[in-house]
Amino acid sequence: MTSKHQCVELNDGHVIPGLGFGTYTPQEVPKSKTLEATKLAIDAGFRHIDTAYAYQVEEEVGQAIRGKIADGIVKREDVFLTSKLAGTCHRPELVQTCLKSSLKKLGLDYVDLYLIHYPVPIKPGEDLFPKDEHGNILFDTVDLCATWEAMEKCKDTGLAKSIGVSNFNHRQLEIILHKPGLKYAPVCNQVECHPYFNQSKLLDYCKSKHIVLVAYGALGTQRDKQWVDQNSAVLLDDPVLGAIAQKHKRSPALVALRYQQQRGVVPLAQSFKEEEIKENIQVFEFQLTSEDMKALDGLDRNLRYLPAEL
């Protein structure tokens, strides 16, 4: 079964496959691994691929998708592809330029979903995360509503089928939703979300506004040394998660993914290992009980693996 068989409806009429493949790649991992993993994901049945300008792997992701189209494995319309606006491109005149740059790298005519990657604008330039002499990120001053209007134009031109946001809190979402003359509401909000940080309040709010929550770090992140405290608890080693996994004869990773799906969240699964990629697609093949869900809800400890320094 492919993830395309179970989709979630977006507020603009499009649908998003209920499981996505993430392509963030730590610096120490060769980009060739991203190319190979994305090919493996498509072969395994993933039809929702998530990338971003800031990941700097759009060439590899695009090459994998185009290769599978050329092989006759998929058609372009079978693949739901997400990319994200760089933080340095929030100025309205830079938004479409950034998207066109992503499309050029991907070698594709459009993305299915384009997101504002961060709610905070960063100083424009070649450096994606410019810093001052004290190591602090250099921010820009741009009205979020002006950036959103430029995102709406990306949808109008057909360069993006749907538009949304990432890493937004309730207050930042309200700014856009209350914008005078709002043409399109965000279809989704992609945030860190897993049993240790279940975002229940934000999820309830998003549901009330017909905004789909997409979860990155759904398996507890790749624990990239650059961003994640190596002393933090390892999600997939949790004994409660392990006991539920054993009961269902599934892996802790599959239980963590299924937990999100049954809450109405679209999780992103990320791996460079063929056996894990093939296993993760099995998330549609079993159900957690209400007792399982309650136990997993109880694991929340407000643990954010990726501190939102922005």
Order of helices and strands: EEEHEHEHEHEHEHEHHEHH
Q: Please identify the structural class as seen in this structure.
A: alpha/beta
Rg from alpha-carbon coordinates: 19 Å
Please report which band the strand proportion falls in: under 5%, 5-15%, 15-25%, 25-35%, 35-45% or over 45%: 5-15%
Range of helix content: 25-40%
Task: Give the overall silhouette.
Answer: globular
Number of E-state strands: 10
The main pleated sheet reads as: 8 strands, parallel, barrel
Which runs of at least 5 residues are low in confidence (pLDDT < 50)?
none
Q: Count up the helices.
A: 10
* Mean pLDDT level: 95
Compute the separation of the termini in Å. Answer: 38 Å
Give the spatial strand order of the biggest sheet: 3-4-5-6-7-8-9-10
Structure overview:
The chain is an alpha/beta fold and 310 residues long. It contains 10 helices and 10 strands. The strands form 2 sheets. It has an 8-stranded parallel β-barrel with strand order 3-4-5-6-7-8-9-10, surrounded by 4 helices. The longest helix has 15 residues. The chain starts with 6 loop residues before the first strand and ends in a 13-residue tail after the last helix.
